[in-house]
Amino acid sequence: MKQARDRYKGFRRRVYLVLEGGPAHGTLGALIEVFLIVLIIANVVAFTLQSVPSIREPYWFDLEAFEIFSVAVFTIEYVLRLWVTIEDPLVAVQGRWKGRLSAALKPTMVIDFFAFAPVYFTVFFPFLDLRFLRMVRLLRLLKIARYSPALSNLGRVLMSERRALVGTLLLIICTTVFAAAAMHAAEGAVQPDKFGTIPGSMWWAITTLTTVGYGDEVPVTLLGRIIAGCTMVTGLGILALPVGIVANGFMNTIHQREFIVTFGMLARVPLFKDLDARLLGEIMNVLRSQSVSRGTIISVKGAPAHAMYFIVSGEVEVELASRRVQFGPGDFFGELALLHDTHRRATIVALSNCRLLALSAEDFTTLTRKHPELRQHIAEAAKEHLARAGRGDIASVEIAAAAQRRYEYREDD
């Protein structure tokens, strides 16, 4: 019985890693991700082609068959994701059913649900006019955000910059009201049907501030034209604010995170295996992901230590004084320089295209001060890591020498 339960949990774990890890979990994960992305795009294309009579009428059977196939795939995907979500440490601490319920309410899972649910409504309630629900199928396009770092990061940027964006929105509302009031005062008596009230003038103010200018409402007096000119110039400046805020935050986030960090990726790093779920969540929030191409020098011997790295996929080579050591998926490097405040003691080169998770020195210091047990955990893991790499006690000598050189360097400064 226990063996069957262990096999069940092991299978669920593998499914979780394949679905959540994607390409980081090997060929199968990469193939499934590519298949789902292609299916999502094909669904949107099929939906739009259904509106063309010359295509819909001769190919209606093929389009309906493809729709049934797509719904089946999306349903299976949703059920599997809901089943394996218990492998997420932050979900597991809430319990099986409560955790799955909270996972089902996440934005990505809600989108996944509405990607197939409207079809079931049309099947079970054919007497209702559910044309609007069929349009909800376009939400399938939003499923691609799960696999797109850019779209996921855009949501993160909007959340982090929400205060600035709300402030900008209030400024736009105030400007709209002032412009409408000014135009009502200038043109209300001349064009009472268009500017006779402030609420009625707001349509003109909105189209003018956004520089759309439909031309259905235009000032005819000199004062009205002056107000319109000032409103246009003001609109250009105000509307540029949210664009600049989002663009700046988006570019900064994209440069920091080249792919999405998930628990599926962290699960491939043994160092994180026994950590508390909440601590693991804190670590995940500060990790910065990056892709490194083959032959890239990740760190140079003697350089200051800015981060430690975890390998999600690919291999790196550590060039020591007397030999070379190779690290692969699940391994980590750069921890000694952070633990002992030294410079890099080796040059590290990517042997293949790698996906790395970087923990900056600042975040490392913050986390280890807040959670002293994390520092101890990394130190013990580093000891085992060195032993497996065959570096033995040489590391302690190198660390002491590097620390001494760093001290002398500071004294010279």
TrEMBL record:
It is a multi-pass membrane protein. Its main location: membrane. The chain crosses the membrane at residues 21-45, 105-128, 164-183, 226-247. Keywords: Ion channel, Ion transport, Membrane, Potassium, Potassium channel, Potassium transport, Transmembrane, Transmembrane helix, Transport. Residues 271-385 form the Cyclic nucleotide-binding domain. It is found in: Membrane. PANTHER family: POTASSIUM VOLTAGE-GATED CHANNEL PROTEIN SHAB (PTHR11537:SF254), VOLTAGE-GATED POTASSIUM CHANNEL (PTHR11537). This is Cyclic nucleotide-gated ion channel. It comes from Rhizomicrobium electricum.
